[in-house]
């Protein structure tokens, strides 16, 4: 069967019940989706399938023939990052970075679907995406700011969540 | 000093945001083998028979490693700190926690490796297990560790970490109130999103290149070199890209066994733990049992503290004696108490061995101390800020282990919390400083401590 990954036609040899995550990582060498749990519990493997975020660890490749699959590699390269990617850099929303590919995919789908900068709504949209590093606040900052774009990537945003001891 | 105070961009931010960061599981090497482990299904058992000959013949199997293949089976991570070695890399005579590794298989893929693990011939004799550290002191507690149920090597030969300072009985006699509390934080899995993972690649010159998710690279190098009994210059470690650790990646989980398998098979070997293995078999933060008894005056001076701590180390010592020592040094928290009597024990149980997590040994005692401070404030009807500011560490005060504070920040932190929460403090608490005690900040029971510390 075939799938389209980040705009490239790819032939898949793995059996149809193979999880899409395994096909992407082990057969096609698309490495940004992460195997955090392989059980649907963490969100690190999330990719867009025909524009909708899906947990690739729970998606049998045979169930998405000819699908358009998008991972963060496909959202933007270092020289051409999307606004969401730039916002994650500028707000330090990626710490160890392991949850980041799934977070950015989910945030992109949320904003493309017309999602607002309301923190409660962003939290709802990112529910089920586990991050053990950031405490989530900087991720909310980044997603809320992402639509504005034009980030200065030579510096890091001031965080409203930091108290400076003087 | 260009970086201090500047809002520099993260050096790895762009890699993370574009999916280009290479974690250990993203490293690809030709001919890579994959690992599965035979783990103990019992919390405590004797190993009666172990035979891998049938498993070795299974399709796709390249190498199997058991205790017999490890040049130095038992190595002490902290023997340099006087903590003797007790934990075998792979179970030999017995297993002391569920999930303890006994053998590892490297095969063409994980399915082949698992099939071979299932084909290993092993016989256990299940033994009684101990799960409640408080029962480690019972005469009839199951014996799980060759040292007994309490770690016996503090200062070489003591089963307790002790601190004695001043005269706690006298302080209790002078006190208006005795206030007690028991605090029992449970185990926590660090749960980094990236599970334990390692890749060891044998090089043509006899060296190994080891890709590691460790938080402690040089530490892991030492561990691998010791178990293999090879010099450090035979190992090139590639690390620094860690998918979260939080203390859970201080223990060397995969690198040593990957390297033994790579040595035996002559091929690159990768081992990535499943989330289930991470939860069941990787080290956790320890459960603690802490009892605090304080003698206090009715206006909120803490005259003396008696404390008993039990630390659940799981089946082996690992870093626990070090953790309890740190814990003992911090058992007054950010406050000064001149009369102390502390006893801390490392207890062995049949849980997974416990290890570091975010402030190893100290987080537990900070939780207990701060909760206890609030309890004292409540029972005395004293304002919780005032109680804390009164007893706050000041320049010249001494820690439980006799260190004289040169620049303690308790007062400043309390003022910052009050500011951030719009809490009005009354004088003299609002103008307290970290400076040396004098006047009303120097009550009788602290006079001795100050002059004592100035003598030295
Ligand atoms: S790896 Fe798919 S949800 Fe965790
Ligand atoms: S940045 Fe580490 S898990 Fe989210």
What does this structure look like?
The complex is a heterodimer of chains A (166) and B (456). Chain A has 166 residues and is α+β, with helices and mostly antiparallel strands. Chain A has two domains: 71 residues, Roll (Ubiquitin-like (UB roll)); 72 residues, [2Fe-2S]-binding domain (DNA polymerase, domain 1). In chain A, 31% of the residues lie in helices and 11% in strands. Chain A has six helices and five strands. Chain A has a five-stranded mixed sheet with strand order 2-1-5-3-4. In chain A, strand 1 and strand 2 form a beta hairpin. In chain A, helix 3 runs antiparallel to helix 6. By secondary structure, chain B is α+β, with helices and mostly antiparallel strands. Chain B has two domains: 196 residues, Aldehyde oxidase/xanthine dehydrogenase, a/b hammerhead (Aldehyde Oxidoreductase, domain 3), CATH 3.90.1170.50; 200 residues, 2-Layer Sandwich (Aldehyde Oxidoreductase, domain 4). Chains A and B meet through helix 2, helix 3 and helix 4 of A and helix 1 and helix 11 of B. The structure holds FE2/S2 (inorganic) cluster (FES) (2 copies). One FE2/S2 (inorganic) cluster binds next to loops of chain A.
Could you give the topology of this structure?
The complex is a heterodimer of chains A (166) and B (456).
Chain A: E1 2-5, E2 8-11, H1 20-27, E3 46-49, E4 52-55, E5 68-70, H2 72-75, H3 83-90, H4 100-112, H5 119-126, H6 137-146
Parallel strand pairs in A: 1-5
Antiparallel strand pairs in A: 1-2, 3-4, 3-5
Chain B: H1 13-17, E1 33-39, E2 45-51, H2 53-56, E3 61-65, E4 94-95, E5 101-107, H3 110-119, E6 121-126, E7 161-165, H4 168-174, E8 177-183, E9 197-202, E10 208-212, H5 217-228, E11 235-238, H6 255-265, E12 269-272, H7 275-281, E13 288-296, E14 302-312, H8 320-329, E15 339-347, H9 362-380, H10 384-391, H11 410-420, H12 444-455
Parallel strand pairs in B: 1-12, 10-11, 14-15
Antiparallel strand pairs in B: 1-5, 2-4, 2-6, 3-5, 7-15, 8-13, 9-10, 9-12, 13-14
């Amino acid at each position: 069967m075939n799938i389209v990954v980040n705009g490239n036609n790819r032939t898949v040899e793995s059996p149809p019940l193979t999880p899409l995550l395994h096909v992407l990582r082990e057969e096609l060498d698309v490495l940004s989706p992460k195997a955090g749990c392989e059980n649907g519990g963490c969100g690190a493997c999330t990719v867009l399938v025909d524009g909708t975020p899906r947990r690739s660890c729970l998606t049998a490749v045979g169930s998405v023939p000819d699908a358009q699959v998008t991972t963060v590699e496909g959202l933007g390269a270092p020289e051409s990052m999307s606004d969401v990617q730039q916002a994650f850099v500028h707000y330090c929303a990626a710490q160890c970075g392991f949850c980041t590919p799934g977070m950015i995919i989910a945030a992109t789908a949320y904003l493309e679907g017309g999602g607002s900068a309301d923190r409660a709504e962003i939290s709802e949209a990112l529910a089920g995406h586990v991050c053990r590093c950031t405490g989530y606040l900087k991720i909310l900052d980044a997603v809320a700011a992402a639509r504005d774009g034009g980030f200065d990537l030579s510096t890091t945003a001031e965080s409203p969540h930091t108290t400076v001891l003087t | 000093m260009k970086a201090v105070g500047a809002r520099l961009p993260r050096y790895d931010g762009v890699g993370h945001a574009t999916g280009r960061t290479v974690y250990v599981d993203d490293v690809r090497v030709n001919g890579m083998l994959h690992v599965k482990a035979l783990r103990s299904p019992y919390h405590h058992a004797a190993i009666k028979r172990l035979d891998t000959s049938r498993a070795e013949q299974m399709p796709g199997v390249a190498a199997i490693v058991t205790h017999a293949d490890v040049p130095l089976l038992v190595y002490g991570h902290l023997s340099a700190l006087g903590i003797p070695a007790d934990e075998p890399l792979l179970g030999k005579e017995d297993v002391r926690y569920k999930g303890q590794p006994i053998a590892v298989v490297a095969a063409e893929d994980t399915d082949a490796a698992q099939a071979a693990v299932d084909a290993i011939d092993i016989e256990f004799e299940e033994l009684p297990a101990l799960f409640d550290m408080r029962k480690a002191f019972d005469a009839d507690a199951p014996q799980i560790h060759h040292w007994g149920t309490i770690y016996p090597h503090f200062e070489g030969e003591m089963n307790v970490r002790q601190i004695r300072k001043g005269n706690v009985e006298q302080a209790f006699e002078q006190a208006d109130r005795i206030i007690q509390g028991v605090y029992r934080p449970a185990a926590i899995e660090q749960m980094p999103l990236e599970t334990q993972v390692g890749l060891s690649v044998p090089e043509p010159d006899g060296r190994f290149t080891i890709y590691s998710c460790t938080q402690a690279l040089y530490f892991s190098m030492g561990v691998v070199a010791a178990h293999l009994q090879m010099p450090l210059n035979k190992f090139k470690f590639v690390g620094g890209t860690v998918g979260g650790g939080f203390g859970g990646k201080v223990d060397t989980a995969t690198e040593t066994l990957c390297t033994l398998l790579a040595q035996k098979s002559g091929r690159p070997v990768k081992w990535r733990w499943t989330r289930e293995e991470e939860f069941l078999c990787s080290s956790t933060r320890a459960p603690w049992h802490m009892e605090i008894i304080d003698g206090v005056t009715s206006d909120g001076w803490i005259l003396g503290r008696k404390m008993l701590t039990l630390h659940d180390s799981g089946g082996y010592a690992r870093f626990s004696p070090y953790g309890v020592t740190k814990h003992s040094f911090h058992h007054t928290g950010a406050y000064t108490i001149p009369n102390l009597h502390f006893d801390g024990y490392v207890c062995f149980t049949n849980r997974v061995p416990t290890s570091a997590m975010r402030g190893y040994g100290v987080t537990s005692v900070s939780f207990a101390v701060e909760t206890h401070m609030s309890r004292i404030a409540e029972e005395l009807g004293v304002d919780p800020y005032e109680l804390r500011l009164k007893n706050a560490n000041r320049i010249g005060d001494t820690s439980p282990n006799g260190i004289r504070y040169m620049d303690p920040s308790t007062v400043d932190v309390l003022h910052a919390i009050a500011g951030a929460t719009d809490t009005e403090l009354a004088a003299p608490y609002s103008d307290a400083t970290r400076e040396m005690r004098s006047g009303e900040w120097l009550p009788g029971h602290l006079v001795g401590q100050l002059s004592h510390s100035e003598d030295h």
